[in-house]
Design goal:
Elements: H1 11-23, E1 42-46, H2 54-57, H3 65-75, E2 82-86, H4 99-113, E3 120-124, H5 126-135, E4 150-152, E5 158-162, H6 167-171, H7 177-191, H8 201-208
Helix pairs in contact: 4-5
This protein binds iron/sulfur cluster (SF4).
Iron/sulfur cluster (SF4) is lined by residues 4, 7-10, 13-14, 31, 88-90, 101, 104-105.
Length: 209
């Protein structure tokens, strides 16, 4: 598989990238690579780079309001190490990648999920939740998205959901910093545990939902 840096699979997103490059030549305007240690036990998965955030800075969840919320939460917590990526690595118009674009980008997320160090995944938003499940080859309807829910996965890892911390969701009160931090802390706790050591995954899922 090619490096995401060179990727031109999504024609619409490449056109958008090139238009933004012409308008803002000092911005990153390209696929935003995952960031964080390769052996991090916790993987945070967002939706896609925000136009003026990650697409500008070249760093996931850095440079806009939603990035500020995520980075502030992470800054208060030094452990465990966290790696951050997005369901789609390129900025989409209106922050909305199409299903076809998400499918094309899924192999890059699958590579991240294949790291044996990843014990827990925090899906920031419903799109990320679905993208993670599909990248793992799991049936989406078996894992209903809900803020704060934890889903025990067949491979012993845990998927935790958070509402997306977009400016709209924050301004409408759908999510607050403390709500995000609670979901993050749940994922952090699971990332420290090794599941399936005699425990019942279904019971664990019910306990944290
Ligand atoms: S969104 Fe993903 S698959 Fe599409 S062009 Fe960007 S890196 Fe490639």
């Amino acid at each position: 598989m090619e490096s995401p840096n060179e990727c031109r699979r999504c024609r619409r997103l490449v056109r958008y990238r090139e238009a933004n490059r012409a308008r803002h030549p000092d911005w990153h305007n390209g696929p935003v690579q995952p960031e964080g240690p390769l052996d991090a036990p916790l993987l945070v998965v967002g939706l896609a780079p925000g136009l003026k955030g990650a697409n500008r800075t070249g760093r996931p969840f850095v440079g806009d309001a939603s990035g500020d919320l995520v980075q502030a939460a992470l800054a208060k917590r030094s452990q465990p190490a966290v790696r951050i990526t997005n369901a789609a690595l390129c900025a989409p118009p209106q922050n909305a990648p199409t299903p076809a674009e998400l499918a094309k980008c899924r192999p890059f997320l699958a590579t991240e999920l294949a790291r044996p160090s990843v014990r827990a995944i925090l899906a920031v938003g419903g799109v990320a939740h679905v993208q993670v499940l599909r990248a793992l080859g799991l049936k989406v309807s078996d894992y209903v998205f809900a803020h704060g829910a934890g889903h025990a996965l067949p491979d012993g890892r845990m998927l935790v959901d958070s509402y997306h911390c977009s400016r709209l969701n924050v301004s409408t009160g759908r999510i607050t910093a403390s709500m995000f931090e609670a979901a993050l802390d749940s994922a952090r706790a699971f990332s420290r545990e090794v599941l399936h050591d005699g425990a019942d995954p279904a019971a664990e899922e019910a306990a944290c939902a």
